[in-house]
Design a protein that fits this description.
Layout (H helix, E strand, L loop, with lengths): L1 H14 L16 H8 L29 E6 L5 E6 L5 E4 L3 E4 L5 H13 L7 E7 L2 E8 L5 E6 L4 H8 L8 H10 L5 E4 L5 E4 L1 H7 L13 E4 L8 E6 L5 E4 L6 H7 L7 E11 L6 E6 L1 H5 L13 E6 L8 E6 L5 E4 L7 H7 L13 E4 L7 H8 L6 H16 L1 E3 L3 H5 L15 E4 L5 E6 L5 E4 L6 H7 L13 E3 L6 E3 L10 E4 L7 H29 L1
Parallel strand pairs: 6-10, 11-15, 16-20, 21-25
Antiparallel strand pairs: 1-2, 1-5, 3-4, 6-7, 8-9, 8-10, 11-12, 13-14, 13-15, 16-17, 18-19, 18-20, 21-22, 23-24, 23-25
Amino acid sequence: MKDKLFGALILLISAGHLSLSQTDKTGMGMDLQDLEKLKTQSVQTAQPKGLALESTIDPEHYFVGPSDVFSVNVWISPPVSFLLTVTPEGTLIIPTVGEVRVSDITLAEAKKKVMEGIGKSYRSSNVTMTLVTPRPIVVIVSGNVVNPGSYELAAYYRADKAIEEANTLRRDQLQWQHEDAERTMSRRNILIRRKDGSNVFADLQKFRVTKEDKWNPYLREGDVIVVPRTDMKQNVIGVYGEVNLPGRYEFVQGDSVKDAIRIAYGLSKEAVVDTIELTRFLPDRTGLTTTVLNGRLLLDGVMPDVALQPGDRIIIRGRPDKRADFVVRIYGEVNYPGVYPITRSGTKLSQVIASAGGFTEFASIKTAQLVRRSVEPREIELERLESSRGGVAAEDSLYYYLETELRIRKEVVTVDFEKLFVEGDSTQDVTLRDDDFISIPQRRKTVYVFGQVASPGHIPFSANQDVKYYLEKAGGLTDRARERDIKIVKAKTRQWLSEDLTTIEEGDYVWVPKEIEKSFAYYLNIVGQTAAILSVGISLALLVIQTNK
């Protein structure tokens, strides 16, 4: 009974509810009725505010320091709870227990010391100590960062958080300063100087792939973080081929083949693990030597790891996978338009049309097209430049560039759908390639006449009729028509042909151009040029006559 009353009294003292000015006849500031009421009250322990943590705090790696706030609980009846703050001298003052030094030791060690101290005053073995609010600390960030200086952070932050803060742009700074620091700062040779004189190193790239705390240590007050500058053309290693993030990485003394593969986020599923190539400069740096390693044995620890040197390159080959997503697209007048899978080099045009359910009754087979893209979108500009290297005559350049642009964006495969699907000509059954596009237009059953005609528009198609027939159906030519330059635009190829070079087919266009109107100045200029030529001719004739006399 005495233990229970004494525990309740300690609870009130620690919570600040007992005032020395409060007295009664017991001389203890409360009577026995107050203590009995206290027995029935639940003890409220302070709860931490929401903190942005990457994971739970590891007691084995978190070091305790001044201003850390702890909840210490003795689970007797009623429970005794203390909300305690580490003093600037690095101690916890625990009522009825005394002063316990907890600074500069791990949280796990601090818990052990506090529990041992409380165990001497309380017979209960059920004692807990919980970190409620981590303390703020001050660290210094120096070296190749945008804003070197002192920063106040929480003690649960790691080195990367301090560097991130030091690289945050201020209003008076430019974006290039941040980009320059990000490009040239070391991420693998970061030095952390502790106030006790010890040094630790941070390797942020290795931490990101391993999540091991030693590569990105928790910060402590007084830390000085030195971020050196690095040159990604020197003191580097390369990891290429079938890894998840191939590229060039900063070299750190002690790196091995296994470390390099980890930093590149491991092997891809297509990697040929048995033959990893390690290429290294000869001692005189005049040549290279290549060593083939059995990566399976190396990664499994059966054979010893291989230490790397600056300039080493690791090549991991991959097995070819021919099961890529090869498809063609069919649009227009087929029964089931859409996307169809094909093999890399063995699917014929007729097979895909059959898979699409064949043509509908409205399909214009004669004007169907197979279009192929041979230039990747990201390489279009380069293709334009390379196509301009030839010696194109000035008068042909505009037309050449137009045709080149059409070729880049849509290369038409020469295939006659009508011969293949109507006449059964197997020579037209071309092999399809990935991303081919098959267009089956709808039958128009008309010929479109436009330009200098009385009534431009669609004229019903009539077989074996010439241009004159369709011009009459369109109301005849206007007074300004240039009849000698009438062109037939083919529905399939959009080629412009003279009427004597082709016959009109369903879906074709007939274009009647306009007579070009010339100003008086134009004719005056012609007369002037003609007169000049005649004048020169007459002068030459007279000169010849005089010479012969």
